[in-house]
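Quick review question:
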């Protein structure tokens, strides 16, 4: 590895699940503005919904999500009531009954909701929206907390994709991250989902965890493959204890360094490709017959806050505390505090605390970054023409990209920029060249690999 590449790897860059990224949202976008944006949506175009459930039964030390450990059901029941209120407010504000083509339940642990509360919320969504025939209805699952009865309730509500958190199967690594989840349990839960008719299964794996080695990552990939998930996401652990205090439970000296992280992710990717998976963007893998692989092939792969997606809806409405929505006009984020969230929605106010109204410059840069993250290539000429400018708009960026070209991370052919296979893991650093907010000193991000 050259010194220049080493420096790029240790550079801190966003994950680019949006552009501008969340740390650059401002309080100028209010609930009133959000309401006006909702009222301007086109009822002919389907929507996508993201529902956030910020509760877990135990904290995993690597967790980067907005969540809270709870032992009683009271706070969850109260939250479920607020979710129903927010869904009704959204339906009331929209100009008509909208189709919904994607629902994603994330968290936290969505199945902390009782089967009755979960079914009631899904029932409400079905009353107020038209779920399309081919809609994807997905739930993130902590296999340690879901029994057969709950799985049956999810299936009865129409859920057709389950995304299981796995991380690593080595018990030593599991101890170090405070998430003990034996292989046999993951196997049983996977089988239970299939038996209930939920055939689309995703596994989320991680590298860069404390005490984790290349052989742990490979063993986890092999064991996962035995359970035949359709998709595997391989996320790098982002150690940001200054933002998430529970990460202080992970000792710095137990973490693999940048070189080791690179070896882990490269070894896992090579093994997944050898097992027949198709690599999608930076960190996802899908079986060749999966819709994510088809979206990559057909040029319709997109990126949102959950990572790579087949979702092509123009608007994604975020529901729940801390959730982020994306509308044609811009991004909005709900208040993180659960108490404020509940107070706001129960008083009939949209709980939006910040966001960003997109300028044309944001849209153009967002398009370039999304294409690079999804397709690993972009034609600057085609992108700039859509916005009535030409490639000279990015002359500074093109100069900055020369260092990447020299290192073999990208190739530049006229206005075509293509990330090379050796540079795939550094695609976020390439995207960062187009990010005008990055150097404004507002945010601290994780390492590029
Ligand atoms: S189960 Fe998921 S959301 Fe909950 S603490 Fe663990 S990683 Fe975070």
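Suggested answer, residue by residue:
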């Amino acid at each position: 590895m050259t010194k220049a590449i080493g420096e790029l790897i240790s550079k801190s860059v966003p994950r680019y699940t949006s552009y501008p990224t969340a740390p650059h949202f401002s309080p100028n976008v209010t609930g009133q503005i959000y309401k006006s944006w909702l009222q301007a949506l086109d009822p002919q175009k389907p929507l996508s919904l993201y529902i956030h459930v910020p509760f877990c039964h135990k904290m995993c030390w690597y967790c980067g999500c907005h969540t809270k450990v709870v032992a009683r059901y009271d706070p969850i029941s109260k939250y479920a009531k607020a979710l129903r209120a927010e869904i009704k407010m959204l339906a009331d504000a929209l100009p008509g009954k909208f189709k919904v083509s994607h629902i994603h339940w994330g968290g936290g642990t969505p199945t902390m909701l009782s089967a009755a509360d979960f079914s009631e919320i899904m029932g409400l969504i079905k009353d107020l929206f038209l779920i399309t025939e081919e809609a994807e209805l997905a739930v993130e699952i902590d296999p340690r907390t879901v029994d057969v009865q709950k799985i049956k309730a999810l299936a009865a509500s129409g859920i057709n994709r389950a995304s299981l958190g796995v991380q690593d199967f080595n018990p030593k690594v599991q101890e170090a991250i405070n998430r003990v989840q034996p292989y046999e349990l993951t196997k049983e839960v996977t089988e239970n989902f299939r038996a209930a008719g939920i055939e689309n299964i995703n596994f989320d794996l991680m590298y860069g965890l404390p005490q984790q080695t290349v052989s742990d990552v490979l063993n986890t990939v092999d064991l996962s493959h035995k359970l035949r998930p359709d998709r595997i996401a391989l996320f790098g652990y982002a150690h940001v204890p200054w933002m998430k205090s529970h990460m202080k439970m992970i000792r710095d000296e137990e973490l693999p360094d940048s070189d080791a992280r690179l070896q882990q992710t490269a070894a896992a990717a090579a093994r997944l490709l050898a097992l027949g998976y198709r690599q999608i963007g930076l960190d996802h893998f899908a079986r060749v017959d999966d819709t994510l692989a088809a979206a990559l092939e057909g040029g319709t792969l997109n990126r949102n806050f959950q990572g790579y997606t087949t979702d092509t809806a123009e608007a994604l409405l975020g529901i729940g505390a801390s959730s982020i929505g994306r509308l044609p006009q811009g991004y909005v984020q709900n208040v993180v505090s659960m108490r404020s969230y509940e107070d706001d929605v129960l008083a009939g106010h949209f709980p939006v605390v910040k966001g960003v109204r997109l300028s044309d410059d944001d849209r153009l840069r967002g398009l370039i970054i999304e294409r690079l993250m999804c397709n690993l290539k972009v034609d600057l000429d085609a992108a700039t023409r859509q916005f009535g400018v030409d490639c000279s708009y990015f002359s500074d960026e093109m100069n900055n990209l020369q260092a990447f070209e020299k290192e073999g991370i990208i190739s530049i052919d006229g206005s075509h920029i293509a990330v090379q296979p050796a540079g795939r893991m550094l695609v976020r650093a390439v995207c960062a060249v187009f990010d005008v907010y990055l150097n404004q000193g507002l945010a601290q991000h994780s390492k590029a690999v």
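Why it works: The chain has a mean pLDDT of 94. Residues 56, 59-60, 63, 65, 67, 107-109, 142, 165 surround iron/sulfur cluster (CB under 6 Å).
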